Structure formats: C-alpha cells, structure tokens
Amino acid sequence: MLDFNANQDPTEALRATFRRHASGVSVITTVDEDNNPVGFTATSMTSLGATPPLVMFSVARGASSWNAISTAKFIAIHTLGEANVELAKRMAADHTQRFLGDDWQRGPENLPIFDCATSVLIGKVRDVLNIENNAVVICDVVSGALGTEDEALLYYQRAYRATGNTLA
C-alpha cells in the first residue's frame, strides 16, 4: 500500500519516484556560436505529438551545453541502443571530452551526428520555456534517419540498462 507520509520532502519524493521510472536514453547535439559541437546525454526526450511532428526535452540551465542549446536554431536527437552505452556515458561526463573521438561527423544543418545511434531526428527549435533552473525545449521534426536496430538503452535506478525481454 502507498504511504504518503513516508516521504514528505517533495524533492526526495521526486528523486525516489524517477529512480523507479525507466527512461529512454538519447544524446542531444547542436553547435555553439563558433560552430563547435556541443551535446549531452538526456533521459527527458519525448514525443510531444505526431501532427505536427514535435519533440521536447529538458535541460538544466546551469549545464555546460545550456548556452548553445538556448540559442540553437537546430538540434539533433540521437536515440541510443544497448551498444551505445559508452557514448551515453561519455556525453554525460566532462564536456571537454565529448567530441574528441572520430565517431561523429557533420550532418544536416552542420549538426554533429553520431552514426552509431539507432535513429537521429533533426529538429528546428520552436520554443524554449525557462522554468526555474531548467528549460523545456520544443522542436519541430524536420527530418530523420534510422540506424542499426538494437535493444533500447534505458536509465533506471541511476544506471544504464537494456530492455532485454519484451512482455506481451
């Protein structure tokens, strides 16, 4: 049975709840004002609707990628599979190390693209909603590409996991 008295601190209630809620893992990339690649690992990306095709994700306004994201005209959203766990970790680590490898190239709108992703959507930024220390970015999907199909990469209980089994 649920006990609403067990966790009265709303911040801890939120953290505890989302540790129990698996999220898909994606990498968001764009370029900064000097055309340098910028990106981060996100577990907040989701479809906002199909008519018109819209996606959204959230980002902390204190994140190293915030300045570039806040002024971006276009972004690339990479969905990740089990084989991409090292990319997810790298894009969540030191921002100065994220694009040192040779596993990416320039794609549409000169965006940094990781070819190993299970799919990539190119989005045109429609709106950025600043909310407290965070922001929600809403994008119109302008194109997409499918990569190699793989078991979905999830973030659950503060760790990366693969879906493994499909339930009916």
Overall pLDDT score: 92
**How large, in whole angstroms, is the Cα Rg?**
16 Å
The largest sheet, given as strand count, sense and whether it forms a barrel, is:
7 strands, antiparallel
* Cα shape: globular
Termini separation comes to: 26 Å
Strand order of the largest sheet: 3-2-6-9-10-5-4
Instruction: Quickly give the structural class.
Output: mainly beta
Give the count of helical stretches.
3
Summarize the helix and strand pattern as letters: HEEEEEHEHEEEEEE
Measured by DSSP, the beta-strand proportion falls in: 35-45%
pLDDT < 50 stretches: none
Number of strands: 12
Helical percentage: 10-25%
How would you portray this structure in words?
- By secondary structure, the protein is mainly β.
- Helix content is 14%, strand content 43%.
- The chain is built from three helices and twelve strands, in the order H-E-E-E-E-E-H-E-H-E-E-E-E-E-E.
- It has helices at residues 10-19, 66-71, 85-92; strands at residues 23-24, 26-31, 37-42, 46-50, 53-60, 74-79, 104-106, 112-114, 119-131, 134-146, 153-156, 159-162.
- It has a seven-stranded antiparallel beta sheet. A three-stranded antiparallel beta sheet has the order 1-11-12, with no helix packed on it. A two-stranded antiparallel sheet has the order 7-8.
- Strand 4 and strand 5 (53-60) form a beta hairpin.
- The longest helix is centred in the first third of the chain and has 10 residues, at 10-19.
- The radius of gyration is 16 Å and the shape is globular.
- The mean pLDDT is 92.
